[in-house]
Amino acid sequence: MPETEKVAKIFACSQSVELAESIAKYYGIPLGNVITNKYSDGEFQPSFEESVRGSRVFLIGSTFPNSDNLMEMLLMLDAAKRSSARHITAVIPYFGWARQDRKDKPRVPIAAKMIAKMLETAGATRIITMDLHADQIQGFFEKPVDHLYASTVFLPYLKNLGLDNLTMASPDMGGSKRAYAYSKAMKSDVVICYKQRAKANVISHMELIGDVTGKNVVLVDDLVDTAGTLTHAANLMMERGAKSVRAICTHPVLSGSAYDKIRDSKLEELIVTDSIPLKQKSEKIKLVSCAELFAEVMKAIQTNKSISSKFLM
What we know:
- There is one protein chain.
- The protein is 29% helix and 26% strand.
- By secondary structure, the chain is of the alpha/beta class.
- It has two domains: 3-148 and 291-310, Rossmann fold; 151-287, 3-Layer(aba) Sandwich (Rossmann fold), CATH 3.40.50.
- The strands form three sheets. It has a seven-stranded mixed β-sheet. A five-stranded parallel β-sheet has the order 1-4-5-6-7, sandwiched between helices. It has a two-stranded antiparallel sheet with strand order 2-3.
- Pfam families: Pribosyl_synth, Pribosyltran_N.
- It is an enzyme of class 2 (transferase).
- One of its GO terms (biological process) is purine nucleotide biosynthetic process.
- Keywords: ATP-binding, Cytoplasm, Kinase, Magnesium, Metal-binding, Nucleotide biosynthesis, Nucleotide-binding, Transferase.
């Protein structure tokens, strides 16, 4: 049977079951059967309960902390490799530990590089991910990487809002390229926030570069963690005369007091994908699913078709 006619198999890591079920539904096949045995000391062992010999296997799981999520993906990759799967694609909507992509001071690891090597060693023959913290992380892999952009799902939502006097914004200098890409698609202006940190997750100073008076501002970022930068930027823009401020963030890490900060901020809404499951509901948080995007790309890979149309930025 030609390889393109073979039925693919989709399995989920435990942290991404809900997203994987949606992806499998859009793909048109049932989610594969995998169970995880747990020992009393916290050790666990995933097991495929059906044959994967000669198949293309898609393993879906975001690798956000804690480290068990990454470990589960590694163990499932190894299990698929040792079960004679023909192709093993790690579908990682949120590639965790990606903020450690360089040595920004002496005697620290480059975690993103290390994890790339771990995934390949464990058995991944291809990686599909979305909105990496830094595009160049693709270069840490020797295997093919399909780096998707959440703009594919965010731009239609943004256009449907029909905002006038729209201005795209970056909450820091590092995200300026992303904000410019969105502004090009939306034919809007761009402003940028310049921030200085006292330490990780703590802002000592922020300044706005550009005019937001009377503008409907949309902040764009790859992830929102403590929401300190995002809410600080939103409040600053409202003080500078913005008409409204909302934010688009692909990965809702949302740790610590993030939900409280968002609730108490001047943000009108925070638009996120389901790359990471939300810990709680919030009236200000709007979820836009990335399941259909991943399903379409996975199906194109299985049938050896181009996926270039999915790269909007």
